[in-house]
Each structure stands twice: as C-alpha cells, then as structure tokens.
Amino acid sequence: MQFIDELPMPPQDALVHCNQLIHQIKDEIEQTEQGISFRRFMEMALYQPGLGYYVAGMRKIGATGDFITAPEISPLFSQCLARQCADILEVLGVGDILELGAGSGIMAADILKQLDVLACLPEHYYILDISPELKQRQRETLQEHVPHLLDKIIWLEQLPKNFIGVIIGNEVLDAMPVDIFHLHNGQVQQRQVIWQGDYFHYKDIPANKMLLEKVQSFNIPTTDYVSEINSNLNGWFLSLSDSLKQGVILLIDYGYTQQEYYHPERSMGTLLCHYQHRVHDNPLVYPGLQDITASVDFTAVANAASDAGINVSGFTTQAMFLTMTGLEALFTEYLIKYPEQQYTLAQQIRTLSLPAEMGDRFKVIALSKAFTSTLIGFSQGDQRYRL
Ligand SMILES: C[S@@+](CC[C@H](N)C(=O)[O-])C[C@H]1O[C@@H](n2cnc3c(N)ncnc32)[C@H](O)[C@@H]1O
Known about the structure:
- This protein has about 375 residues and is α/β, with parallel strands linked by helices.
- It has helices at about 10-30, 40-45, 70-75, 75-90, 105-115, 130-145, 210-215, 235-245, 260, 300-305, 320-325, 325-335, 340-355, 355-360, and strands at about 35, 95-100, 125-130, 155, 165-170, 180-185, 185-195, 200-205, 225-230, 245-255, 270-275, 280, 290-295, 295, 310-315, 360-370.
- It contains 14 helices and 16 strands.
- The strands form three sheets. Strands 2, 3, 4, 5, 10, 14, 15 and 16 form an eight-stranded mixed β-sheet that branches. Strands 1, 6, 7, 8 and 9 form a five-stranded antiparallel β-sheet that branches.
- Helix 4 (about 75-90) crosses helix 5 (about 105-115).
- S-adenosylmethionine binds near residues 101, 103, 130 and 171.
C-alpha cells in the first residue's frame, strides 16, 4: 500500500479494510491486458459491495468524517429547498418527494420539518441511496429529528414508476464515477489504472470512440491537458425520465458550464479526494477510505437531461437560489427565536452564500417534465443562457 506523508495515517482496522479492496481491484486488473478504466477504479473505490467508500461502515459526512456538505452546515439550506418543494407540490396539487443520495439524512429531516411548518407535507418522502451504511444512519437521524413523520419516509431500492412530485439530490452528481482523458500532442488518451511494484499507477491508452468524439467536441486548444467526463449521465437521465411522470428535479452541486470546465487554464482537471478534512489529488491511494469526486459539467447535465426528454427549467448559483427561496427571511425568523445564535447563523449563511465559499462554486439546476410554472428559486438570476 502507498502512504502519503501529508495525510493522517489510517488506523489499523481501516488499513485491513483498504487492503481487502486493493486485492479485489488488483484481481480485476490482472484479468485485463491494459488495466481497468479509471471510471471502473473509482466505481470500485467508492461503491464495491461491502468495501467501497460509500458502502462500508465508516462515518464520512460531517464534522467527524471526511467532508461537510451544505445541509450539514446549516438547516437554513434545507429550509430554503423545502420552500421551493412546497411551491412545486402546491402547483401539482398532490405529490411526493424523492431524495437521491441522502447522506446522513439531515436534509430529509430539515425539509420535512419545514414542510410540516408550511402545512405542505408530501404524501411520501422517498429516499434512494446506494449505500446500506448511510441508509442505517438516515434512519437514525430521521428517528431522532422527525419521529412523528417516520411513516411518510420510504427507502427505495430503485427509481419508482410514474413519479409525480419533486426529485432532489445534493452532491450526488459529483460522487459518480468519471473517465479521465489526457490530451497529449493532439492525441486523445484515456487513463487506465494498472498495478505495478505494489502500487496502482496510471497508464494512458488511445481513447475509445465515445470518449474521443466527446473530447474533440470540447475544442481544447492545448497540447497537454487532463480532465474528466461523466459518461454515466445519459443512462442516468434516461432512467430518471422513465421514472418521472410530472414534476421537477433539483440538483445541487459544485461545477461549471462546459466552457468553464474545459477551459485551457484548468489543465489538471477537477478530481479531488477528501480524507479527514484534508483535500488532495491522488485517487489511487487509500481506496475505500477516502472520497473521490469530480466537479460537475452542468452543460453535459442539461444536454443529457434534454436528450432524455426532460426540460431544463433553471440554472443558477447556490447563493442566488437561497436568496430567492427566502434565506434572509428565514434568518430573521431564527434570530427572533434564538437571538443568542446570531454569530453562528451569520457564519453559516456566509459559508453557504459568499462567492468565495459555496455561493458561486455550487450551482442549482432545475429539470422538469409536464411542469411549466415559474420556479421561485430561479425567478431572478436564471443563467440557463450560459449552459
Ligand atoms: C457526497 S454524498 C452527499 C450526501 C448528501 N446528499 C449531503 O449533501 O450530505 C453522495 C451521496 O450520494 C449517494 N449516491 C451516489 N451515487 C448515487 C446514485 N447513483 N443514486 C443514489 N445515490 C447515490 C451516496 O451513497 C451518498 O449518500
């Protein structure tokens, strides 16, 4: 196993776990001639049954984990999202909420609490998460925060049929496995992972046809350039489109439009790893112990959704979305109830909405089917024209 000096040394039981996953990845590599694609490596590192980062039993999200997300920073984030959901449910007259990748379950709890206050509870709050460990944690969080609403919450194993309502996902897209390409002297190569001398290494091979065509379409004017592509988007949106009969999908994540994503200056790509609140760029170490993410290409998201028959109904920054869904009014309400929390709440709002923090880096995209009403979160500052 390879260690990185700047990272804390994982405890012994974590190293045993990591070694088991290394063996499984190595076994798969040994059955190939050219190694496995980086996408497959990332898929195994994050989701290999029983061992992958998201499916094994370690605490990942929150202050004691590896990274922190907006719903963990402040309930105000989920309350704003709840306001947008309430608006949509009201227009639909009847409907459910489906949360994809619910993490610790705190966003579900805070959304349900706020919808209860607004007297706009959905028929059901469905959760679809591929992590059995996180499902257990979600159950505990929801039991603790909204025990009176537990009968509304249903965990699904697959997307429902004929869904009517709102589908939400915070930081789900960035956790999807990506391909890495390397543009080198006019050649498009794809990054494979091989095992050599006791470590994982990259090996570049000529890109497959799909990757080649995609990369050529970006017209990147440089001779040495590495970046990523999420090749699962089309399939994912086809399944979502198949499931959604009427309503809105709201996806929040960090990322860029395609023009910004594949900008000549971003020549090292966007791949990042999180291990105990330390960020670095080597995904080949500590498989199963660290998170691996890539920023989201929102133009590709919009195109994949549109190709699957879903409309692109809004695109804005997290800061603008939160402003339009009433962040300020919620803050004032909180201050009246809990004046002693003024400093803490102000800090939370800064993190969520300042441009240099999450405000601009995180975006919200709204996608819809058979739904044409205005969405409050995008009623000003809609940037669809940039996609
Ligand atoms: C970075 S975490 C974000 C968790 C949570 N939404 C939050 O904001 O704290 C990514 C989550 O997405 C889940 N996930 C990844 N791919 C998924 C997919 N295709 N369908 C459903 N959940 C997925 C993971 O298990 C995990 O719960």
